Fold:
Amino acid sequence: MDFQEFLQFVPKVLDVRLPAFDAHIKMAPLERSQSLKQIDFSDKNPRVAAVMMLFYPKNEITHLVLIVRNSYKGVHSAQIGFPGGKYEIDDENFAYTALRETHEEVGIHPDKIQILKPFTQLYIPPSNFIVHPFLGISKDELVFVLQPSEVADIIELPLSIFLSDSIVVETKVPTSYSVESSVPAFKIENHIVWGATAMMLNELKEVLKEVLYS
Structure:
């Protein structure tokens, strides 16, 4: 979709009710379904993070940026995600965290990003994080500068491909619940995107479909 056309729909995005659980559950591993229905963080003392779901023009076409994380000893090693990271005590709020981390990880200055709205927070049991996603846009063509210690690569995903049902697949992956589980996922440029990122992507996708196609 042409980026200028996309911008015309932005005001409608602000008014859409977030589908939250209804969207998350569609891309959740089966083992997580019950925990999503009965979330209680009171005894878990989770860490907090924020991520940026950033749309921008590339050759005048609307794109969404995702990052490929480096391999490391951790539950999110080499996974696909949004730019973002851990909330720090000096951060003004979660939106500030998302902007700061996006700047650190992919080199996009906060001045270039307009935050449109927060999306539904999501608890991630394996890492004990609550993640706060924010929808943002940049009206400029972007030059990404990757933080090599955190980011191995980026994926510049055209909006038209993101909205296609053809990228939704069922696959088998090792999870914290099982040696091998069948999970719903997005197949994006030969990458399998599942778990929390897929759940957040699905809420974003449902909101955009409601705005663009209704």
Observations:
- The CA atoms of residues 40 and 123 lie 10 Å apart.
- The chain has six helices and eleven strands.
- The mean pLDDT is 90.
